[in-house]
Protein: Phosphoribosylformylglycinamidine synthase subunit PurS
Organism: Halobacterium jilantaiense
Amino acid sequence: MTAYTATVTVRLKRGVLDPEAETTQQALERLGFELGDLRSADRFEIDLDADDETAAADRAGEMAERLLANPTIHDYDVAVEPRE
Amino acid sequence: MTAYTATVTVRLKRGVLDPEAETTQQALERLGFELGDLRSADRFEIDLDADDETAAADRAGEMAERLLANPTIHDYDVAVEPRE
């Protein structure tokens, strides 16, 4: 077993309204920043032990499917790296 | 001016309690997943135009300082890449 950190990024699908991101963007603009667009996402960093990187990514993907993401409105991606 | 996407990741400093992450971890364990630790972070993807990558990163860093992160409890990092 090797120690890995899996990073699951959960973002809203294109077309799903994101009022929080919109408010953040407006607040930045009110502060004088110029920006084209702002999207927000949730990021989960999960420490786990697995036989190899594929097994770790599979497990993190299953966590996303079952709990972290709502497939109706979210897309997610998984990145895995070894942990010291 | 070139189009960039700056990604600002805002996470709680070590030692700051994160009840949401704790609840998520417990829910995953209740579903039968084994994991060592789970940390959550907010990720902002910001489209902006700037003269070069350094200018884009500086501007995104300033947004983090002034609005996206609370320096008392948050650390943040900024990554910039060109946008097509």
Q: What stands out?
A: Chain B has a mean pLDDT of 96. The helical segments of chain B are 19-30, 53-68. The first helix of chain B runs from residue 19 to 30.
